[in-house]
Amino acid sequence: MLKLFLWLKYLRKRRIVLLSIAAVALSVALLIVVASLFTGFINALERSAVEMLGDVVLAGPPGRPIEKYPSLIERLEQTDIVEAATGTLSTQGLLNVRLGDVRPVSLWGIEAGPRARVTGFTDVLLRQSQLPDDPSFAVPGLPDADGGFVGIGVVAEADPNTDEYDQTAVLEQMMGQRVVITTGAPAEASDADQTPRRKLVPFHIADIVFTGVHNLDTGFVYVPIETLQKVLYPDKDSPATTINIKLKPGTDPVLAVAQIRGLWDVFAERQLGWGEYQRRVATEIVTAREMQRQYVDEIRKQMGVLLLIFGVVSFTVVVLVFCIFYMIVRLKQRDIAILKSCGAASVSVAWIFLGFGITVGVVGAAIGAAGGYAITKNINAIEGGIRVVFGLKLWSSSVYMFTRIPNEVDWASALPIVALAIAAAAVGALTPAIVAARTRPVEVLQYD
After folding, report:
1. pTM: predicted TM-score of the whole model, two decimal places
2. Counting Cβ atoms within 10 Å, is residue 397 exposed (0-12), middle (13-18) or buried (19+)?
């Protein structure tokens, strides 16, 4: 009770202690926001890969598609680790939206229904996301037309200030519009110069894709895989460039990849007649998260460096707490001497100031954690306010990939940061506490 009385007295009389609380709070909030923004970006990157590609991706050698892929998918889905799988046939092309408006795009031939079961593809379709049935390429009002999906950024421009699209206007303007993609098919064996053949893929827009990932929204077009197969490989038996796989819940991805690789090896050897190099070395089987691993590792390095820099700067908390508490100890020598002359042990006196330092750390860390949480969760509103007030655009989807700043609080990093802040405040108060404990009442009170 005496310790609490003295703490409240020092806090009321020496309000400079509030400065140390503010320093702890500011440091904690800063480190939590930095860690959360980096971790949120990494999580959003990995999550977007899984949502668009599935849990595991089996990619054939460049220039050599995987034939008879429905048979492979059937075998995969018969295992106890695969929930669903689908094929993708990909190439590059030029999309002619309207006269004089030609854009380079990645063209994917997909199976709309199966892909929705493997990935979160339904959720990114503006028109069909709320429909109960599986998505389809059917064009409203044009039952016999060939349909396709286009990324929203392929056919529209985002607001340069907010990075937002007028989704309703894009749907009304582009739905059912006929567009043409120019692509190149592999040369036939009889062609002397082996020049790729120019092919056209016309279709009507059946839906607009909005993923929130800049590269996907501005550079991808999707058509039925059967349509692209006829254009690129008319003589091959159901070709696909990749197989996208969704694992059953609770499946270990590492073990799943090993099992899928074994099944693929048997299929490629017996059904496709591929040699060992083609099926084991040239074919890649990885998880969608692993595909982003190199990029993610670099981001984590940058996060570590930035946290280290801010951590060193935040070390001033220790110095500030030390200076403030040392000043209090020197000014309160008479109080300390009276306590010791009344029988208080040196350890008890030391704990008065050390406990006060820990309390300062706890209060400051709690305020900082609350502030870091509030800033992180409202970071998009804060960025918008800065843009409006100062005309400064801090976040651009064309640079940072996502249309919105990831605002997930990284509690795994926040809790150690809070603990270290409390420890730092305790370290700062330790030396003054020792000085207080070594105070000699006779020397202080002999002239009073």
Report:
1. 0.80
2. buried
